[in-house]
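Support request, please re-run this one:
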Amino acid sequence: MFSLYALAQQAPSIDLIISNCKVINMADGSITQGQSVAIKNGKIIDVHSDKYIKNKYQAAQYIQAEGRYVMPGLWDMHMHFGGGDSTLHENKNFLALYLAHGVTSIRDMAADISKSVVKWRDEINNDQLTGPRIFTSGPKLEGYKPIWKGVLQVGTPEEVESALDSLQKLNVDFVKITENTLKPDIYLYALKAVKARGLRSSAHIPSSLTLNEVIDAGLNSVEHLGYAYNAGIPKAATASKASQFNAEYAKQQYRYMANHHVFITPTLLGSYIISHLDEDSHTNDAYLKYIGRGIKNTYSWRVDRAKNISAEASKQRHENYDNVSKILPLLQSEGVKIMAGTDAGYLNSFVYPGIGIHQELALMVKAGLSPLQALQASVVNSPAFLGLTEYGSVAKDKRADLILLDQNPIENIEATQKIHSVIVKGVVFDRRQLDKFLKDVADQNVSGL
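Re-run finished. Output below.
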C-alpha cells in the first residue's frame, strides 16, 4: 500500500490527458488505437498507450475520447481580414468562427486593417485573446494606384526598401506581393530584397514574367492555382488557354518549383464559388448569419461582375475551373508542397471563415488528391512553409493544437467537420463551447453589434 501511494505521489502533474483515442499519423495516414496524449504548458509531452500514460502521469483535466480520432488542428493558409475600421468587430468575430470549425492557425494575406490584425496576433500569442494563431503579412506591396486598398505603393527600389522597413517594424511573419500595377522590374527587385532580409515571400505572378524568373528572384510561395496553370503554357503558344496547356512542359516548371522549395496555395474554393454562381447564388446560405453586414457588403463587387454574364460565359467559367483544378495532382506528383487556403474573409464572396477550410479540403480531394494529401496540405505543409517544426503531428514536443473527430478523415474528408472538441495551446473547447462561439457571433450580427 505504501509503495503504491508513494508511486502516485511521484507521478508528474500535468494539465491534460486525452485517453482512449485513435491517433492519426499525418505522414502515412495510419491509425494507432488505444492511445493517450499527455499535455503540459501547451505542448504534447507524451503519446503512448492508455495504460502507460495512466500509470505515469496525473492530470488536472481528463478527456475520455471513447475511440475518437485525434489529429493536429487545421490551418487556413490564405484568408483576409479587412473592410475598414468600421468592420473591426466583424473581423474579430472570425476568430471564434475559425476555432468553432477546428482551425487553430491562420495566415492573413493582407488588407486594410493590418495594425489591428497584428494587435490580435500578439494578444493571442500572449494569452490575452482567444483565437487561432495568426501569421500575417501586414499590408502587401503593390504598384501605384492599384485596385486594392491598404497597400504599400512602391515604384522604385528606394520605396521597396522603405516599405520593407515599415513591415519589419510591424514584425510581420512574411511579405505579400501582388501585380495589379507593380512594374515587373520592381516586382523582381522586391522579391530579391525580401530574400536579402531573410523574410519569406508570397505572391501573385505577373503575366510578363515566367515562373522560373520569379523563383530565381526568391519567391517562396505562389498564391492561387491559376498562376501554376499559366506556367504550364509555353510562351510561344497562341491558341486558347485550354489547348495551350502542355502537361510535359508544366511538369518541368513544377519540378523547378519543388527543387527550389516553392510552395503553392491553390485557393480552389473562391474560384469554384465565383465560377458557379449561375448554379448557386449563395444568397440563402445558412452560414450568412455568422457574417456581419459590413463584410457582406464587400462581397458585392465580385458578385455584381459575375451574375450578369451570359450562359456561354458561365459555361466557359465552369470549364476554366475544371481545367485549372485538374493540375493539382500534377503539382503533387512533381513534389510541389501544396498548402490549404480558402481566400476567406472580406471581399471574396461567400468564402466563409471557418467552414471554408473544410470545403477547400473537399475540393482538393474532388480535384484528385487523396484525403491524406489534402490534410497534409493543411496541417503539415502549412507550418513547414513558415519554418515551424513544432507543428504537423500528434507527437512529443509538438504544440497541443489538436482536434478530436467523431469519424476518420483519412477514409472520408468530410469527417473533418465531425468535431467533438478543439484543443488550442492545451486548452479544451468542447462541442458545447464551440456551439456557443457560433451562437454568440450570430446573436451579435442580429443585434447589429
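DSSP finds 20 helices and 18 strands in the chain. The two ends are 60 Å apart (CA to CA).
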